[in-house]
Each structure stands twice: as C-alpha cells, then as structure tokens.
Amino acid sequence: MEKEVTENNGDSILELTNIKKSFGNFEVLKDINLTVQKGETVVLLGKSGTGKSVILKCIIGLEHQSSGKIAVFGKEFSELREEEENAFRRKIGFLFQSGALYDSMTVRQNLEFPVIRQPDYKKEDLTERVEEALNNVGLIDAIDKFPSELSGGMKKRIALARTLMLNPEIILYDEPTTGLDPVTSNEISHLILDMQKKLKVTSLIVTHDMPCTHLVADRIVVLKEGEFTAEGTYDELSKSKDDFVRGFFEFE
Ligand SMILES: Nc1ncnc2c1ncn2[C@@H]1O[C@H](COP(=O)(O)OP(=O)(O)O)[C@@H](O)[C@H]1O
Ligand SMILES: [Mg+2]
Which of 21, 22, 28 to mutate to test ligand 1, by most ligand atoms within 8 A of the CB atom? Predict the structure, then answer.
C-alpha cells in the first residue's frame, strides 16, 4: 500500500503518506497511508481509542503528526505559507463528535459565525447563504431558535449546515450518528448521502454505525494497531477472512 510522496495525481484530493503520531511514548499511529479521490466517500472503521479522531485532527491541523505528509489538492501543508495554509484548511469542513453549537447564539448566529471571521466575507450574501445551508439540511424553520430548543438530531443537522457555510470541498465527520437513536441516525445517514449527491463533496467519515456505513461508503478502511489493515467495499469487507475485520460487520 505504500506510495511515493505526494505529487498531484489528478483527482486525488486528500493524501496521507506514512503518518506517525505519538503522545509521549505511546505511538497511536504507526504508518497511515490513505488516498481519497474527489467525490469519494471513505468510511474509517476502528475500535474506540485507536486513533481515528487523531487522524481527522491531523488532517485539519488540530494535532500535528510526528512524521509523514498530508497533502490536500496535491499540495503538502508543510510547504505552504501560513495564509495559504489557512485558505486550504478552509476547504476542509469538520463535523465534531459533539457537534458543539454555541448555546447563547441562535441558529442563524451559529451559522454566520464561521463566515464573519473570514477576512473576505461579503455581508450582502450572508442571509442568503444561511438560508441555503439550512434548506440543505431541511431546517429552515429553526433559523431563529436556540440550540436548547432543538433535538439531538436537529443539532447535528445545524452543525452540518454550519460546516457547509464555508463551502468545503472535503467534509470530515467524526462519529456523526453516535449518541442518536436509530431513527435519527438513519436520518443523518441519509442527509450525508444527500450532501454527497447534491454538493458532490468528498467525505471521510469515522463511524461505528454499520447501517450508515452501508448506505454512504464508496470504500472502507479499517484501522488496527496504528495502521490500515484492510480496505475495500462494504460487500468485500463483510466477507473478509480476517475475523477482526469481519467483526465490524457482524451486528444485528
Ligand atoms: N492530546 C492527546 N494527548 C494524549 N493522548 C491522546 C491525545 N489525543 C488522543 N490521545 C490518545 O490517543 C488514543 C487515540 O485517541 P482517539 O483518536 O481519540 O481514539 P478514537 O479512535 O476513539 O477516536 C487514545 O488512547 C487517546 O487517549
Ligand atoms: Mg474518536
């Protein structure tokens, strides 16, 4: 699975090469290699505490890998100047595990927030953009509500709408359905699928939700002991001869 480092090879939108990450003596990521093509949805499976969130955090720059290269749109972050790097990072949307909305702000204010922090934002289109993002997640009626007035599923949708405000080309989802009831999980999974179709975004999704995985994944990678141990479609991996891999697919 190893590759030469990061020349722009056409449609590769995200490329991780030989990523290692340690916290003190604890090596969480040993050798992570992953290429995601434009428009593709990749699901990342792995047990709890094995480094899935750390991978996403390295991609958006909340953590820094100990070694290895991360390239987005064929450019390596380490080669970019700071302002260029910020512009690149803006193309990557991130839906946190908690979905963290600002409780003291209305939905509209929550959605405006990431935009008004951008140096080049245009005040004129802001209302239109907020409405468009809310329409995309089917929650335009919640525009003047506060987070405390919304259900868990609605908060997730609003968090996704907020992520969409900066027109990301890649969305990283960290356990988007964890903690939601099965019906709401299913709604969120369909919403992710909708975003893929409507906005053609590229997605990398960390989840344990196998119905969600079945619905949205073009390709699945399985993390084990700091490396990807398997890669394939849902059908391929569900028939894997490796008990560890197949274990993810044996659920009721
Ligand atoms: N900032 C940090 N400092 C120290 N250890 C960390 C830090 N972030 C994550 N870890 C450790 O790295 C491991 C992987 O964490 P994480 O990526 O959050 O797991 P998960 O696969 O459940 O998302 C865990 O053992 C966690 O305790
Ligand atoms: Mg995690």
Answer: 28
